[in-house]
Specification:
This protein is an alpha/beta fold. The protein is 45% helix and 19% strand. It has two domains: 285 residues, TIM Barrel (Alpha-Beta Barrel); 93 residues, Alpha-Beta Plaits, CATH 3.30.70. It has an eight-stranded parallel β-barrel, surrounded by nine helices. Strands 10-11-9-12 form a four-stranded antiparallel β-sheet. The radius of gyration is 23 Å and the shape is globular. This is Ketose-bisphosphate aldolase.
Length: 393
């Protein structure tokens, strides 16, 4: 397993008064370091990939490695799109393996933020995927990723937060109460009373972005007032950078492998420190018992064709691969032909769904209905379809 439903994971944290770290990963050193810390401290963890970081890595390749790390781990793991900016990016993230998505339209006005967030919620919930929205604005300061969040703090208000959650249906809300993205100069002045009031009004897990620079007491006070998810990025990047600089200083002329050999350990040390401060260490077993496993479904179709040539059948199948593969929640569409000519069924389709919830949304999706009625059913002969819940790695 143990990829688990992110909504279940954060519900457990919220109900039991601790926070799960959502650690932004930008390469294998980060994935390995974060997972080593989670497994060593027996903590649930969220591996987070930020849309704003995609210029630094191939998102599809890193998602494959991140998902593999989560599936082989003995601790509960969720995979999250951080700071997604559009419906299209959320659809793609789910297709590539994310089981939680954030839509960040916090720079837009309230009505636009609401509309864009609601569109993502409707799509993602049909795929069984929870959504984090953001209300208020968390700016950046000069430093790691700070330039990507210009402007000044716009604090979340209780009234707007309540209306936003009710009208969008988000599962978690990122709030602005005084934190900043990037490196912090001085001590953050956090509005804990505002956070308390928001938590009392909403009753859902809250998220904090801009956690770098906060002290242990501030983190504990945030958690006591409803924060169940803490995003963490800059401090990990700083730990990695410091490890590289230390190696370069101690070994002038060192090659790449020597320079980065301490990066994963440095990231792991900082990650484990956070897990212990935030109260998630030692929670893995109880979280696993509380959470539903996140497992894909294989939609199998076997059939023959009548009334068309092999070439026409190939064209129909190619059209189906393109149309069905674009439906939200569909992770892959693979087709094949029987190896033996005498096989009872000549053609097969394997359509992988992100989660069981996709079965219904896929069946009623206009693109599926159109392809099935116009291209597939008129020529399919003796077709059989079965949905299988997949088990194992």
């Amino acid at each position: 397993m143990p990829l688990v439903h992110m909504k279940d994971m954060l519900a457990h944290a919220y109900e039991h008064g601790y926070a799960v770290g959502a650690f932004d990963v930008v390469g294998l050193d980060f994935v390995e370091g974060v997972m080593a810390a989670a497994e060593r401290s027996r903590a649930p963890v969220i591996l987070s990939l930020a849309e704003s970081h995609r210029e630094y890595y191939d998102f599809e390749l890193l998602m494959s490695a991140t998902e593999a790390a989560g599936r082989r781990s003995p601790v509960p793991v969720a995979l999250h799109l951080d700071h997604g900016t559009s419906l299209e990016s959320a659809v793609r993230a789910i297709r590539l393996g994310c089981n939680g998505v954030m839509v960040d339209a916090s720079q837009a006005d309230f009505s636009d933020n609401l509309a864009r967030t609601k569109a993502v919620v409707e799509m993602a919930h049909a795929c069984g995927v929870p959504v984090e929205g953001e209300l208020g604005y968390v700016p950046g300061v000069p430093g790691e990723n700070g330039e990507r969040h210009p402007g000044t703090n716009v604090y979340t208000t209780v009234a707007e937060a309540k209306g936003f959650v009710e009208r969008t249906g988000v599962d978690f809300l990122a709030v602005s109460i005084g934190t900043v993205h990037g490196r912090l100069k001085g001590k953050a002045k956090l509005d804990f009373q505002r956070l308390r009031s928001i938590n009392q009004a909403l009753g859902i897990p809250l998220a904090i972005h801009g956690g770098a620079g906060l002290d242990d007491d501030q983190f504990r006070r945030l958690i006591a007032k409803g924060v169940a998810k803490i995003n963490y990025d800059t401090a990990l990047a700083d730990a990695a950078g410091a490890a590289i600089r230390a190696r370069a200083k101690s070994a002038p002329g060192a090659g790449y492998m020597d320079l980065v050999q301490d990066v994963s350990a440095a990231i792991s040390t900082e990650t484990e420190r956070c897990m212990r401060v935030w109260g998630s260490a030692g929670r893995a077993a109880e979280v696993l018992s509380h959470c539903r496993p996140w497992a894909p479904v294989e939609h199998l179709i076997i059939h023959n064709v009548v009334g068309i040539s092999e070439k026409e059948a190939a064209a129909m199948i190619a059209e189906g691969q393109q149309a069905l593969g674009a439906i939200p929640g569909v992770r892959a569409v693979v087709t094949g032909r029987a190896v033996e000519e005498r096989a009872q069924y000549r053609y097969c389709w394997l359509v992988r769904f992100a989660a069981p919830e996709v079965i219904d949304s896929y069946r009623g999706h206009p693109d599926h209905v159109a392809f099935a009625n116009r291209r597939f059913r008129p020529v399919a002969d003796r077709d059989i379809s079965i949905d299988y819940a997949l088990e194992g790695p």
